[in-house]
Amino acid sequence: MKMDKKDLKEKIIVLGVTVGLFFPLRIFFSSYVSDHWIGSLGIMSAVAILLVVLIKKKKLGWFGIIFEKQMRKTVGGKTGKYLIGFAIFFLIYFGATLFFIDRGNNIYSDDKKIFYLAIMEEGGYNINDLSSYKLIGPKLIFQKDLQNFEVLGNIDYMFSIAYAVMNDMSNGWLEHVVVVMCVEQIELIGILFFYRNIFKSTRVQVTN
After folding, report:
1. pLDDT at position 53, please?
2. Which tens digit of pLDDT belongs to each residue from 71-112?
3. What are the pLDDT digits (tens) for 117-134?
4. Which three-class secondary structure state does DSSP give residue 125?
């Protein structure tokens, strides 16, 4: 199948503009306006609705035409279902990341501190001597009813410690970005359904 270079170029333009608009706006808003995740909820939706309004009023010129065309071809078609599926997948992934960070900071806080100091080689700790330190280890396997879930307990412990330590090493930026991305997926799912409804029956009028 021969690739349509014009169509590919339009897709790249639309993707570049939307990513370059939505993500930095979310980061800026959550960093300097409201640091709570619910405070930035609605920013992406507001911009998405504004785009639709401007496109309907023919205020975005050639970009509005190709944006509507690409939304009708991708989001309004079978590809839109895949995009919704990917958004749900990433929502689960980012949600799980926040879950593990929270467990690392609370359930495994003592072990996380030892791992962090050992990696950073601070407080007399060294990563090569990790086995000699008093680590609590996975909590699940200490419960009699869950002893058969030792593998799950190890996975829980590994990811909780790893994500919590990485978050500390980034001075909290990992959690901050993951929260932004998690909220982004929630809104993205809503926007995809909204755009599928708006652009499914839309016909693009191209004027010379």
Report:
1. 87
2. 887 777 777 888 889 999 999 999 999 999 999 999 898 889
3. 888 877 777 777 766 677
4. coil
Q: Give the C-alpha separation, 116 to 126, whole Å.
A: 10
Q: How far is CA 46 from CA 17, 41, 52, 206, in A?
A: 16, 10, 10, 26
- Domain residue spans in the chain? 5-199
List of residues 6+ apart from 202 with CB closer than 8 A: 68, 72, 76
- What six digits make up the tokens of 145? 């009813």
Task: State the first-to-last Cα distance of the chain, in angstroms, to the nearest integer.
Answer: 29
Cα–Cα–Cα angle for 85, 28, 70, nearest 5°? 40
Task: Take residue 138 and report the two structure tokens written for it.
Answer: 């996975």
52 φ, ψ (degrees, to nearest 5): -60, -45
- Extract the runs of DSSP E, i.e. beta strands, from 6-135: none
Q: What does the alpha-carbon distance between residue 23 and residue 120 come to, in Å, rounded to a whole number?
A: 31
AA letter at 58: K
